[in-house]
Amino acid sequence: MHYLDNSATTKVYEAARQRMVYMMETCFGNPSSVHQAGVAAAAELRRARMSVAAGLGCEPENAVFTSGGTEADNMAIFGLADRHLGRKVVTTDAEHPAVLESVRELGRRGFEPVFLPTVGGAPDMEQAARAIDGDTALVVMMLVNNETGAIFPVDKVAAHIKANSKAKFHIDAVQAFGRVPFSAKTLACDTLAVSSHKVGGPKGVGALYIAPGVHLTRTVFGGGQEGAVRSGTENMPGIAGFGAAVEETFRDGAARRAAVRALRDYAATELEKVGAVINNPPRPAPHILNFSLPGFKAEPTLNRLSELGVCVSAGSACSAGKKRHSHVLVAMGLPEALLDSALRCSMCLETTKEDIDALVAAVASVTGTGKK
Q1: 345 is catalytic
Q2: Rounded CA gap, 258 and 51, in Å?
Q3: Phi, psi of 112 (to 5 degrees)
Q4: 366: alpha, beta or left? (left if phi > 0; alpha if psi -120 to 50)
Q5: What is the distance, to the nearest Å, from the Cα of residue 163 to the centroid of all Cα atoms in its chain?
Q6: How far apart are CA 80 and CA 84, in angstroms?
Q7: Whole-structure pTM value
Q8: Which of 189, 311, 318, 345 is catalytic?
Q9: In sequence order, what are the residues at sequence separation of 6 or more whose Cβ sits closer than 8 angstroms to the Cβ of residue 145?
């Protein structure tokens, strides 16, 4: 099998698997317990927090573990929304469902959602500047789009907020973490969400960066774990696996990101030779390639590629199976022929040239070009 759907999830790295097994079989204590087993588990919790914080570019005490990116987004959005700061919540029309549905729920609770258009792939800063004003309570924006790889101007948004608004700022960095360099501290956001299973860690665990001095409205009460922001016994196998995966992801990070980008560019060149149209915006993140095969519907093409041993997607895995065009690509302004046939392949540190060649050969088989 040639797996090219790493934006949906990655295979668990061997180092992460080994750490998880260790936590389940050997270091299985509750990190809140004061006996020997608990102390050992607490040490592993600290180790994982330090590893994830190093990847985020923040202090360990500012990283809170969650059940994944969706919970991290929800914790931030509902925890930061405050009508005393304003009535508007500004986001974009190309966000992940975890953000879009949360912002819509805030609308039902009395806020005014504003969805910035992303025609061409990313929001325009002039429109963003007009929308983010003194009546804005919260701004929410992704750093890297999960379907097109578009990099959104979060640094410019943060600067505008600082100069013109009291609004809080949350960044969804799930697709950016380990793929494009950033530091949570220098992005000048209040909160930032990441997820384990996008970087070679297990599913069901993520993290939320909370800037110093920022206080979230809590929704979970209990024993006071995770700085009392998210009470409940920590998922130690998942957290330890997440930490190990981050350590692996950030080892020689720049060189490995360059290798992934080279594979993505190679795939784009070869796919165009067999009839594909590349949908990526200019200068996207290195791991995502969105392409269309005009005249070939996405779903049957996806199924045929799967039969040939190549796994790609037809959009976000969180909306897979819903028979409608990708809201991201519609917002981008693609014509109907490209919307109907759009597919996404996404790479990770373990992707090989052989995987790309298999994809191109399978696409050639579908389109009947006879190449490869």
Answers
A1: no
A2: 22
A3: -110, 105
A4: alpha
A5: 28
A6: 11
A7: 0.95
A8: 318
A9: 94, 121, 122, 151, 152, 175, 288, 328
